[in-house]
Amino acid sequence: MMNMDEQHLVGRIQAGDEWAFAEIVHIYKDRIVNYLYQVTGDYQKAADLSQETFLRVFFKANKYRPIAPFSSWIYAIASNLAKTELKKNRRANLVSFDDIQPGLEASTPSEESTDSGLIKNLRQALEALNPRYRIPVVLKDIEGYSQEEIAEIIQRPIGTVKARISRGRNILKKQLEKATKENLSFQKREILDGRY
Amino acid sequence: MDDISLLRKLDKVTAPPDFEQRVMTQLARRRAALPQARRAQAFRYSLAGAAAALLVCFLVLNVFVLRNGPGRVQMAGRDATEALKASDIVPITETVNYRNEVRDASSEPRTVYILEQVSNASNKYTRY
Known about the structure:
The complex is a heterodimer of chains A (about 200) and B (about 130).
Chain A: H1 3-14, H2 18-40, H3 43-59, H4 70-88, H5 90-93, H6 116-128, H7 131-141, H8 147-154, H9 158-192
Chain B: H1 2-5, H2 19-66, H3 70-86, E1 90-91, H4 98-101, E2 126-127
Parallel strand pairs in B: 1-2
């Protein structure tokens, strides 16, 4: 849908039009649910937060100013909700990097990129990443937003966004390398023990 | 960065099938609850406003009326009279004839008064 149409829909939502709101939900529901799933790692929580995101869009529509794209605004609401939720459950859901256990299904990054073990490790590393870095990395590398757009979404200067993306990627890379090394030694032990 | 390019290959999810319906139901519920919530909020604000107005009235009265007003002066005078009554002081009033007191200073020599202390004790009951 074109940006102008979205602006028109937002204008109608500001007037309390539920049909326009339903249109916006229809357009963005999959993107927002997927984004929140990548950030939280929990599908049910992602669905609940998405629902809350859309309700806020409706009730806070008067606060939207068309200086930024509507998608940035809706992602900003979703990011803030995700951040609050992650903070709230920080202790309960904390996954340490040390908890990323090498498994037999894991493999080296040099193998095929669709390797499920590597993706599993990547998912675990992403969930262990601090939300400060996780949100910009997800927005950049999964959602495909530019650094300028991410700066608008998370309401931070562009320099901060660049630094956080870079640092987040480095942390992920180190954790993947660590998990791979541990996995190789694990496999070696398995062979020496005669299990293969 | 090859590892990070894998991020795009992470499994993607879509919204649950009844997601839109759930959102619209929740929206209707919240819209219905909105006037009640607004009334409660207005009541809270009015209560806070009334309390603030009372506090301001109290402060203004205390600072400008009760402390420096005429009532306060009257209270001070009454307090002093009561204090005098409570003590054992006997007030003595002497009349003075100024005709005898006023003399021509040029015709007579200057009067010299010699004051001598007779006793250390003083009569506390006599006040001039």
